[in-house]
Structures are given as C-alpha cells and as structure tokens.
Batch of 2 targets.
Target 1
Amino acid sequence: DAGVTQSPTHLIKTRGQQVTLRCSPKSGHDTVSWYQQALGQGPQFIFQYYEEEERQRGNFPDRFSGHQFPNYSSELNVNALLLGDSALYLCASTDGLAGGGEQFFGPGTRLTVL
Amino acid sequence: DAKTTQPNSMESNEEEPVHLPCNHSTISGTDYIHWYRQLPSQGPEYVIHGLTSNVNNRMASLAIAEDRKSSTLILHRATLRDAAVYYCILVNTDKLIFGTGTRLQVFP
C-alpha cells in the first residue's frame, strides 16, 4: 500500500496564474481533505470531499476549489494566485464511515508563488 | 470549533518519559481527542486518539481526565526520532483544526 500520494512535490508559479494539485488517497479510503500550511504555522483546513461532493469547507476564498473523482482521488485548484498562497499543501485521507478515526497525510506539495 | 491549548515547547532527554499536556475546556460530548505529530519536512503523522478512556498503542499512551477537559500524551521512552511538533486536536466531523502545537526537543 503506497499510502497517500501527492503530485507534484514542488511547484513554482507567478502571481495571477492558476495551479492544480493532485492527491491519491490510501487504498480503501473514500474521504479526502486538503490543508494549507504556511511556514512556521499549523495546517489550516481548506475543504473535504466525500462521495465526489464537498462536505465541509474552511475559511478559504472561492479561488480555492476542488474535485473528487469516482476513484476517490482529488484535485485542489487555486486561481489568481497571490504571494500569500505560497505554502505546503497537504492532502489527508480517511474512511468516511469510520468517523473520528485516524487520518493519513501525504508528504505535501510545496507551492511557491513569485 | 473547539480549541486546545498546549505549551509552545518542551524538552526531554533521550530514553526519559515525556508528558505532553493539552487543555480543552470547551470539549463537547462527541469530540474525539486526537494527537498528531509532524517531523521536519514531512506531513503530519497520526499518533493516537481517544474519546473517554485512556488509550495505549505502540507509539504512545493517552491519558484523558475524568471531566475530559484535559489530556496528556505520554511517550514512555523518548528517542531522537521523537523530536517533532505535537498537535492536540478535537475532532468530531473528520475535520482537523490544528493549533500551534508543542515543539518537542530531545537531547542525547
């Protein structure tokens, strides 16, 4: 089992561009959450997908959007990039039916906006 | 979202026990208490979680106060590999709300 995988590992973009980050959940998991971690801070919840629908959302603008595919993999899209969007983007997966259980995190995608 | 309070940093010597405290006075009856840790340049890693009773696993023990307003993560014998930021999180909808955590330093 490969666990949670994310791509790409690193990414450099310029202000105003758009970016798509990808996540494959751990085998058997159907729920995917995305987090943003700025340098020196704890991760901040962006949103969560279950059964291809956005189930919960944190305090992030509409520039942040996502998608979940039938195979449970997920994408995070960020439009009109700002310098402040530079961060480590983490994906986590869990079994949505388990409730309150362990979440598995990927290694993250390091996004730098110039 | 229910919040937790942790010390910013703690230190330990290798092979000594470490007790990491967490206060969560606004916890609700359905909130699970989760602990995650994050090693440098890695994503967070699950450590342990519980609801009301104390819990043990291969990594650590979790002691939960009877009123559930506080908990303690116990590492029985700290190793250099345990140096990380430890997050105490209340969870009830699979949404993790991270605070700033406790940075644990382990000295040889």
Target 2
Amino acid sequence: EVHLVESGGGLVQPGGSLRLSCAVSGFTFSDHFMDWVRQAPGKGLEWVGRSRNKANSYTTEYAASVKGRFTISRDDSKNSLYLQMNSLKTEDTAVYYCVRDGYYDYLWLLDVWGKGTTVTVSS
Amino acid sequence: DIQMTQSPSSLSASVGDRVTITCRASQGISNYLAWFQQKPGKAPKSLIYAASSLHSGVPSKFSGSGSGTDFTLTISSLQPEDFATYYCQQYNSYPLTFGGGTKVEIK
C-alpha cells in the first residue's frame, strides 16, 4: 500500500525558515515525479511545486508565489521528498500536502496524497 | 496562467439526487483535467483524470466529461459519504492550477 507521511511543520516567525519532509513507502519512489500542494485555512488548493525523477534529471517547477524562496529536493536512497521554505510570509500559512504523481496516458499527474503537515507563520 | 472556474461554489442536495458540477478553463486544455474530492479535515482524494477516466477504486457513480474549456463532474445518486468539496485541476501547463472548489452539502 502506498503511504506518504509529511513532517516538519510548526510555528515559525515571518522571515524564518522551515524544512518539510515526506517519507514514502509502498512504491518505487525513484521512478516517480512528486509534488507539494498547500491549502491555507478555509481556502482552496494551491500547487506549490514539482520534482521530476532521475530520468528527467531531477528538475523542478515552482509556483510564482514561492519561486526563489522554496526549494524542492529529494533523496531517492531515503525514499524522501523535501521542501525547504525560506523567507516565510504570513500568507504561507497552510497545510502542506506531499503528493505522488502517477504516469497516465503518457503524462504525470497528481495521484496519491499524504495527510499533510501544518505550517503557521506568525509573530 | 490558466484560470479554472468552478460553478456553483456550493450546492445543497438530497440523498439520491443527481448532481453536476461545472469547471471552465480560461484557455483550451484538451482533456488534461482532473477532479478531486476533499472531506473536512482530510486530504484530497483523486477521483478522475483525463476528464473522464476514473482512478482505481473510484465508484462508477462518479463520471466526468468535457474537452477544451468546459468540463463537468456528475454524481449519479448522491450518498451520505459524497458530501464533500470537489476541486477540478488542469495539468495542461505549468503552473498547475485548481478551481476554487464546490462544496456539496446536505439539503
């Protein structure tokens, strides 16, 4: 069974940093693209960014709202995905979901979701 | 960026009702459209991809249709476990974008 478990959330002051982790099991992590998606309190879903697999050179994509402040990385040997968040703003307060991409019809798309970890940016 | 607009933003329906939710893209996205279900306090669950293909394990009471800019999600006979918020999402181009959500409530 596929499992994705996020950790690392918490309370941080504006301007601070936080690193989220996503530990996965039940599938071959190194084969898959992975995403981070967030949800501010009482709001909808917002895509944060994507990590491609080794076959695609581990390249990344980011939403404009986080580009230059957030960095997605992965360690295939540890079956783990990371989200380094710097220069945090109050508007980054959200539940952050780790999402596995599946390969369907020759395209990668959001497939299996973790339960999420909560990040609160406040002074 | 491609804007995704869902309507209605909320609806009230009874058990057994047929419910249809609409999603419109600001530009053509072929059939690169997914639907997700989210219950309160829970993570989203993937329902549909490629506008009309059900993910494994998703019951056939859910169906999707559309191509280009206009899409629909239909629940054929609403059951208590279907009361939730539904989101559409395009994966035609970056950034990936979601609709604002449709909350399906009990009448």
